[in-house]
């Protein structure tokens, strides 16, 4: 299994509040995709998308990302060709809130994963409401597993049937983490997921790293994860 990453160094043109930074990055990526006919078609489809992204680094302690400052973000995908087209579009986008200065490509191949942990909070909805920590944890894990299976099938055309790849889960936030999106506040959670060592579990863990854990990965970067490799 492989997943790919763009490490993007960019200057931002306007101040951005930390609560809205994920929506701002997602909007910039969407605007950039409109500059390529194939990516525009992908953007307009109501289907699982093949990418996820981080926030800006370094994190601003003032909770405001300042206009004129330079930050780094990461964009991941399971498809290298997608990232190459996206890079070209980002460099063409002169009207967005960011100006791309440099892009580095990385490839991660067949690394054994012990666990993954969320940098951006993971979002899970149940009956059109956000899952909360006093709800059923087993249901939360099943939703994460089902979502990863759907991404594996939709993006890589492979299947594993109702596979339980999560060995254990730990919540690392005391309270839900808010993220702004389309005028509402979405509530998510920071988690560390212990991954089983068998082949199919490892395959699904790579899908998570390349396309995000849970929902809203391509919209606001929810579920962007880092891994502890063995």
TrEMBL record:
The GO biological-process annotations, alphabetized, read as: defense response to virus
Please tell me whether the keyword Repeat is annotated for this protein: no
The CRISPR associated protein Cas6 C-terminal domain extends over: 116-219
User: Hey, what's the signal peptide range on this chain?
Assistant: none
InterPro entries in UniProt: Cas_Cas6_C, CRISPR-assoc_prot_Cas6
* Keywords annotated in UniProt: Antiviral defense, RNA-binding
Q: In Gene Ontology terms, what is one molecular function of this protein? A: hydrolase activity, acting on ester bonds
Report whether RNA-binding shows up as a keyword of the record. yes
Determine the domain of life of the protein's source. Bacteria
| Assigned protein family | Belongs to the CRISPR-associated protein Cas6/Cse3/CasE family.
Which NCBIfam families does the UniProt entry name for this protein? cas_cas6
The entry's protein name is CRISPR-associated endoribonuclease Cas6
Organism annotation:
Hazenella coriacea
């Amino acid at each position: 299994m492989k997943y790919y990453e763009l490490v993007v160094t960019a200057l931002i043109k306007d101040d951005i509040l930390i609560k809205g930074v994920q929506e701002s990055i997602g909007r910039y990526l969407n605007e950039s995709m409109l500059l390529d006919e194939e990516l525009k078609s992908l953007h307009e489809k109501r289907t699982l998308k093949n990418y996820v992204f981080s926030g800006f680094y370094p994190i601003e302690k003032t909770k405001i990302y300042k206009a004129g400052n330079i930050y780094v973000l990461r964009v991941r995908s399971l498809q290298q060709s997608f990232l190459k087209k996206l890079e070209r579009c980002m460099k063409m986008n002169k009207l967005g809130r960011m100006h791309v200065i440099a892009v580095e490509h990385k490839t991660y191949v067949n690394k054994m994963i012990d666990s993954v942990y969320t940098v951006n909070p993971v979002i899970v909805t149940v009956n059109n409401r956000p899952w909360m920590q006093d709800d059923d944890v087993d249901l939360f894990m099943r939703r994460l597993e089902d979502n990863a299976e759907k991404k594996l099938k939709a993006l890589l055309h492979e299947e594993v049937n109702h596979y339980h790849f999560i060995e254990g889960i730990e919540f690392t936030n005391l309270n839900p983490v808010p993220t702004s999106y389309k005028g509402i506040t979405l509530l998510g959670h920071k988690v560390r997921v212990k991954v089983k060592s068998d082949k199919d579990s490892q395959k699904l863990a790579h899908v998570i790293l390349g396309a995000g854990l849970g929902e809203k990965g391509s919209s606001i970067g929810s579920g962007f994860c880092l891994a502890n490799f063995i």
